């Protein structure tokens, strides 16, 4: 995908009516601080379109990013932040569930997990929940620059086991620092949303 324009079009709070965008959507879920905002900024080549900070638990809305007036990247609220009261967590959970249930144009759910750690109970719950709603989550293992190269495969295996991934599941290691994994994620989004790959990519393929 060549990013021509991008804007934060719709922000949904807990009680907001969810939009019917009519365009293909892909959603991003993950626990607070996993690097979701950083991933979205990296995908759209912006430094701070999605807010990032060292302070977890900020993203409490469902944010719809309009890409080229053709697809939406949907940023779901981060879960699992200990300081958020239980009642709030339940509301966010319901909001995410409502979205997964009602979107008619959701093509895929990307679940972000930190490559350094075994999946948490919340990660497992989220994975099972997305599966239960009829989607096969695509796993993005974030912050890969924080690991030595030799550790990456071992940790990916631990995530696969920890989440009990279904056979044939896709897992992509990613770093917002080095942009490793970015092109692979875009190629998948393009495929899932029926976008035509960039002309340069087609040319490269023909040259091979
Ligand atoms: N080294 C490194 N740091 C990262 C990476 N991605 C995110 N971070 C850092 O991790 C912290 C959290 O990143 P965010 O992108 O704000 O995480 P988030 O998942 O959007 O957080 P919430 O808003 O709490 O849901 C920030 O300090 C980022 O700079 C990465 O790939 N590599």
UniProtKB/TrEMBL annotation:
Sorted alphabetically, which HAMAP family does this protein's record hold?
GTPase_EngB
Spell out the CDD domains in the cross-references: YihA_EngB
- Annotated Gene3D superfamilies: P-loop containing nucleotide triphosphate hydrolases
Q: Which InterPro entries match?
A: G_ENGB_dom, GTP-bd, GTP-bd_ribosome_bio_YsxC, P-loop_NTPase
Q: Which PANTHER family match?
A: ENGB-TYPE G DOMAIN-CONTAINING PROTEIN, MSS1/TRME-RELATED GTP-BINDING PROTEIN
| Protein's recorded name | Probable GTP-binding protein EngB
Instruction: Give the required cofactors.
Output: Mg(2+)
Q: Which family does it belong to?
A: Belongs to the TRAFAC class TrmE-Era-EngA-EngB-Septin-like GTPase superfamily. EngB GTPase family.
Q: Organism's domain of life? A: Bacteria
Keyword annotations for this protein?
Answer: Cell cycle, Cell division, GTP-binding, Magnesium, Metal-binding, Nucleotide-binding, Septation
Which parts of the sequence belong to the EngB-type G domain?
Answer: 22-195
Function summary:
Necessary for normal cell division and for the maintenance of normal septation.
